[in-house]
Write a structure and sequence with these properties.
By secondary structure, the chain is an alpha+beta fold. It folds into 2 domains: about 35-240, Metalloenzyme, LuxS/M16 peptidase-like (Cytochrome Bc1 Complex, Chain A, domain 1); about 260-450, Metalloenzyme, LuxS/M16 peptidase-like (Cytochrome Bc1 Complex, Chain A, domain 1), CATH 3.30.830.10. Helices cover about 40% and strands about 20% of the residues. A 6-stranded mixed β-sheet has the order 3-4-8-5-7-6, sandwiched between helices. A 5-stranded mixed β-sheet has the order 9-13-10-12-11, with helices on both faces. Strands 1-2 form a two-stranded parallel sheet. Helix 12 crosses helix 16. It is globular and about 60 Å long. The termini are far apart.
Length: about 450
């Protein structure tokens, strides 16, 4: 029998089960009200997605551009990320950083992020400021000032981000090394944050060319969620975005095909700042559009690493005490993704010990029975996270963007939650055996770099 619950009641019930294990409706029995989204495309190619929701007097505005680090020019890694920063500088009719004034000064917020496949810009404001935000997003799409001063100042900011997140972070070099070592052909091998050498090699003309190539209405998706009038929204979108011309030149597409791995590979990365060693392993998985395999792989990753009761935490951190941190992730992308597991070792343990235990737990999960209670708990945690995200206008907009631009089908925003509840133990076994235990892996040993012994003090006693 299917139960239909109000979203707030459903979420409260799921929180209770996830936190305490107390009985509640099984995740497989819940019928979730779908997001009622509206979709249209302007004559210039701009895709518009919207969800009307009057739960609070706020509205989220997001611009998703179909460009990410995979589109960085050759020898210019980090370029998409650099351009994300430039989008906050001045335009023909806006001062630099004016987006902060249009959002923060009215009680809202704004930010942006760059990924492998997309770059998104997002704001949340009181709903009576919607028109201003639509104008501002159209303005920086069509009238951005790309000049030498803005370019050099933001390049310096991005380089400092690299120093902080990669060089200063004891395990930054480990996570930054995963993509370069996991892909051999696909441009996913370029880390999103790039490198200082590539950023320094970039020129102003590179930036101008990048903007002209990828920042165009037919390569963008506008998402609006929250408290608005649909007819008024359409009128404002037509007014501010409809006038932006569609370029005649085609949009470059990534055509590289990552070949199947024919053998296991191993790499060693050293760190001057890491106090303890670590190990990471990756396997290739299909694109996010393959929902039949994507969702069971996400469930598998959660079974391995979600919470203190997860299999990797119980084995490596609790029972064997060989690691102080573990993780697993099914990173689905527009192109081939990665299934990754890692462990940061406890003092006195080499990477090989953790690697052996990681492999054992993965094989056990792929081949041995999974209890209904364990599977239900993990699916409930994932479902709770998705429903919690959708309690805000910003979260609803993100869910729409991920479904449309990463998964490749906006209807996945609703269908994924149904598919998640139907994942069985057999599904988990199938995808792990196909993509992980039955495939070749890349292993990265992350080792603290030995420090040179200090020279003996002159005249020291022997």
């Amino acid at each position: 029998m299917t139960m239909r619950l109000h979203p707030a009641t459903l979420l409260a019930s799921l929180f209770l089960f996830a936190a305490t294990g107390a009985p509640c409706a099984s995740a497989a029995e819940l019928s979730i009200p779908p997001l009622a989204y509206h979709q249209r495309t302007l004559s210039n190619g701009l895709q518009v997605l919207s969800v009307e929701d009057h739960a609070s007097p706020n509205v989220a505005v997001q611009m998703w551009y179909h460009v990410g680090s995979r589109d960085d020019p050759h020898g210019r890694s980090g370029f998409a990320h650099l351009f994300e920063h430039l989008m906050f500088k001045s335009t023909r009719h806006m001062h630099a950083e004016q987006m902060d004034r249009l959002t923060e000064d009215v009680g809202g917020a704004n930010n942006a992020s760059t990924g492998d496949d997309v770059t998104n810009y997002f704001e949340i404001v009181p709903s009576n400021h919607l028109r201003t935000l639509l104008w501002a997003e159209a303005e920086r799409l069509s009238n951005l000032n790309v000049d030498e001063e803005n370019f050099k100042s933001e390049r310096a900011v991005v380089e400092e981000e690299y120093r902080q997140s990669v060089l200063a972070n004891p395990y930054g070099k480990l996570f930054n090394a995963i993509d370069p070592h996991s892909y051999t052909v696909h441009p996913y091998q370029r880390p999103t944050i790039g490198s200082i050498a590539d950023l320094e090699a970039a020129s102003l003309q590179n930036v101008i060319d990048f903007h002209n190539t990828f920042y165009r209405p037919d390569n963008a998706t506008l998402i609006v969620a929250g408290d608005f009038d649909p007819k008024q929204l359409d009128a404002w979108v037509d007014q501010y975005f409809g006038r932006i011309p569609k370029p005649a030149t085609p949009i470059p597409q990534v055509t590289a095909k990552e070949p199947a791995r024919k053998k296991n590979r191993r790499f060693t990365v050293t760190s001057e700042t890491a106090p303890l060693p670590a190990v990471a392993m990756t396997w290739l998985i299909p694109p996010a559009s393959d929902r039949a395999d994507r969702i069971p792989l996400q469930v598998a990753a959660a079974l391995l690493s979600q919470g203190d009761s997860s299999r990797l935490h119980q084995s490596l951190v609790y029972r064997h005490q060989v690691a102080r941190e573990i993780g697993a992730d099914a990173d689905a992308r527009v192109g081939p993704g990665l299934f990754t597991v890692y462990a940061i070792l406890a003092s006195g343990h080499p990477p090989a010990v953790a690697e052996k235990l990681l492999n054992e737990e993965i094989i056990w999960l792929a081949t041995q029975p999974i209890s209904a209670a364990e599977l239900d708990k993990v699916k409930t945690l994932l479902l709770t996270s998705a429903l919690k995200q959708r309690q805000t206008a910003q979260g609803i907009a993100f869910a729409l963007g991920e479904a449309s631009l990463i998964d490749g089908n906006v209807e996945d925003v609703n269908d994924d939650l149904t598919a998640l509840q139907k994942v069985s133990a057999q599904d988990v076994h199938r995808v792990l055996q196909k993509y992980v235990t039955g495939a070749k892996k890349v292993t990265i040993d992350y080792l603290p770099q030995a420090k040179a012994a200090p020279a003996a003090a002159k005249g020291a006693a022997k």
